[in-house]
Structure formats: structure tokens, C-alpha cells
Amino acid sequence: MTTPDELTQEELEHKLAGQFAEFVQLVGGLAHEIKNPLSTIRLNLELLSEDLTDPQTPCERRAAGKVEVVERECTRLQKLLDDFLQFARIRPAELAPHSVNDSLQRVLDFFEPQATASNIELVRYLEADLPRVQIDPESLQAALLNLILNAQQALPDGGQLMVRSRSTPGGVAIDLIDNGIGMDTATLNRAFDPFYSTKSGGSGLGLPTTRKIIEAHGGTLSVQSEPERGTQFTIQLPTPRQITGE
Ligand SMILES: Nc1ncnc2c1ncn2[C@@H]1O[C@H](COP(=O)(O)OP(=O)(O)OP(=O)(O)O)[C@@H](O)[C@H]1O
Ligand SMILES: [Mg+2]
Fold it and tell me: Does the CB atom of residue 191 touch ligand 1 within 6 A?
């Protein structure tokens, strides 16, 4: 029983969801507001560094060094804001039946030249005749790219990235397995926390964004990792029956 002043569980959840959406919108607005002056700052820094391309005096050399530091920090802030806006962008996935392999091929073809340049062997095992699953191809491809870029960054001296698709009893799974630096338990426990990053210049929003996208597909994203051995991410996407729970 609830008194008129008390909210039922459902009303409370509704109220909190509304407040959260409002908060996200507010912070998203703030991020946008910061982006504009930031690009003006960057533009002026570029002009300043052009003036300092050939520093003559020690004072000019020091100034050129400082401009470089500020430019680097501006780039980092810009990436953080872009990643945050992508993370906060609450766009419901526009799901329609598609081939997972088509999305995989597209992203892997895009990444192939970078893989070759980074000495990464890209191995594809894409199961033929997979069932179609409900996908928003654009956001799924963004999620895959986040995972692939993480694998690339975990393979600073090159190595192997294996990408596999397979059918499962409930739908389709995608495995991304790298033999890179791996994660210790502390990193593994925090890897999906927003803003957690072990990289200089990392925003720490890649994995939380990726998980959010996969969950919007009714799927799951899981990880296994071992330091020095490598990391496996697995995306599970349900066939339509599992999504609607029929
Ligand atoms: N394949 C991987 N191998 C080893 N560590 C990984 C891998 N993928 C993620 N991590 C760890 O998880 C952390 C969080 O990853 P996430 O993608 O969220 O952020 P990031 O890559 O650091 O920055 P960015 O926002 O630019 O993606 C990374 O900093 C890294 O420590
Ligand atoms: Mg990342």
C-alpha cells in the first residue's frame, strides 16, 4: 500500500528515468558548448604555431614547446568530448534483419590496410549461412570498430587478431581474439567503467559505448583476458524470437 505522497516502484523508476534523461541532455549540451570555444582555441594555436615554425631565440623555442603541449591537450579534450557525445547520444537502435557477416566484412575491409601497416595478421573465420539477426548496421559497425581499435592498441609490436562469427542456440556470436598485452584483474574489473583508461589520450568511453550499443540490440558483450597472452571479446546477438521473448 502507498500513501498519496509515496510513489510506487514503477512511478519511482519512471521518475528516475526522466531525471536521468534530463541530466544526460544537460551534460550533452554542456559538452557541445565546450566544443565551440575549443575549436577557436585550436585554430588560434595553429596560427600561433605557424608563427613559431622557425624559432630563433630560446624564448621562441620555449614558446613553441608550450604551444605544442597545449595543442596536444586540446586534441585530447576534443576526442573526449566527441566520445562523450557519442556515448550520451541516446538513439534507439533501428533494428532490421541483416547479415552479421556483411557488417563484419565492411569493418574488417576498412581496417585491413591499418592492420597491415601495424604488422597485425587479420584472420577471419566467418561462418557461412548464419541466421539473420536484428541489427542497426551503423551502430553495430561502430561497436566493432571500437573493439578492433582496442585490439590494435593492445598489439603495439604487431601480432594476430582473429575475428570469428558463429551461430549459437540463441542467435549469432562474434568473437574478437587478440594475442596482445592482455589485462590484469584490476584493469579487467574496471574496463567497462566510463572514463576508465590505461592509455594516455584514451577517453575510456570506447567499451561503455560498445556495451551500450550491443545491449540496445538485446545482446551481451563479455570479455576474457590474461596479461601477456591476450584478450577475447564476445558479442552475443539474439535471433528475433529471443528479443521479443515469444
Ligand atoms: N583488447 C584489449 N587488450 C588489452 N586491454 C584492453 C583491450 N580492450 C580494452 N582494454 C583495456 O580497457 C580499457 C578501456 O577501454 P576503452 O576502449 O573503454 O577505452 P580506451 O581504449 O582506453 O580509450 P578510448 O575511449 O579511446 O577507446 C583500456 O584503456 C585498456 O586498458
Ligand atoms: Mg578504446
Answer: yes
Ligand 1 proximity of 230 Cβ (cutoff 6 Å): no
**10 C-alpha vs ligand 2 centroid, how far in Å?**
36
Pairing label, strands 220-226, 96-98 = unpaired
Same domain, 126 and 109: yes
CA dihedral sign, ordered 197, 198, 201, 206: negative
Residue that finishes a domain, picked among 69, 88, 107: 88
Identify whether residues 70 and 114 lie together within a single domain.
no
Ligand 1 within 6 A of CB of 236: no
Question: Per-residue pLDDT tens for 166-176?
Answer: 999 999 999 99
Domain that residue 202 falls in: 97-244
- Ligand 2 centroid – CA 198 distance (Å): 10
Same domain (yes/no): 186, 69: no
Residue located nearest, by CA, to atom 1 of ligand 1 = 151
What pLDDT digit, counting tens, does each position of 23-64 carry?
Answer: 777 777 788 888 888 989 999 999 999 999 898 999 999 999
Distance 204 CA to ligand 1 centre (A): 7
Q: Is the pTM of this model over 0.85?
A: no
Q: What is the distance between the alpha carbons of residues 234 and 237, in angstroms, rounded to a whole number?
A: 10
Residue in the structure block whose three cell numbers are 600561433: 48
For the domain that residue 180 is a member of, what is the CATH number? Answer: 3.30.565.10
Count of domains observed in the chain: 2
Q: Is residue 209 lining ligand 1, measured as CB closer than 6 Å? A: no
Please tell me the distance between residue 189's alpha carbon and the centre of ligand 1 in angstroms: 12
How far is 41 from 70, CA to CA, in rounded Å? 10
DSSP 8-class letter at 191: T
